[in-house]
Design brief:
three-stranded mixed sheet, about 140 residues, 3 strands, single chain, alpha+beta, globular, about 35% helix
């Protein structure tokens, strides 16, 4: 689980009209190209308001880091033939995303980036490689 320092935290927040958050998630999922989109059949996509204490982990990260999403499960690269299927899920955290991205277009972009980032973890791509690819 990686916490990412992102968002327009220094820019003044202005009142804007956002699309419903679930619509942003659906739009992000619809843009995932094949063959990566096939992996979405193996993962539940969940929207929660905020992460739980367990999802936040041990709390040793920088206080400026925010958790926008998390992948929980077994990445494809670690599946074994003798394993029982384990439910995989990507959880997106609505309140931190909306708080850090007041502009509707920026929010939509960050929802997309978070979906791609967490799906990449399901595909076995770690944070170092995501950073190399510019998806962090």
């Amino acid at each position: 689980m990686a916490k990412r320092r992102r968002g327009a935290r220094t820019a003044p927040h202005r009142a804007t009209h956002h699309r419903p958050f679930e619509e942003l998630v659906e739009r992000a999922l619809a843009t995932i190209p094949m063959p990566f989109a096939e992996a979405l059949d193996e993962v539940a996509i969940v929207v929660e308001d905020e992460p739980t204490a367990e999802q936040l982990g041990d709390g040793d990260s920088d206080s400026d880091d925010t958790l926008y999403g998390i992948y929980e499960g077994v990445p494809r690269t670690e599946w074994g033939a003798d394993w029982i299927a384990v439910p995989n899920r990507i959880t997106l955290f609505r309140l931190p995303l909306e708080a850090d991205f007041a502009d509707p277009d920026e929010l939509e972009d960050e929802v997309w980036l978070t979906v791609v980032h967490e799906l990449a973890h399901h595909l076995g791509i770690d944070d170092a490689r995501l950073h190399e690819l510019g998806v962090d």
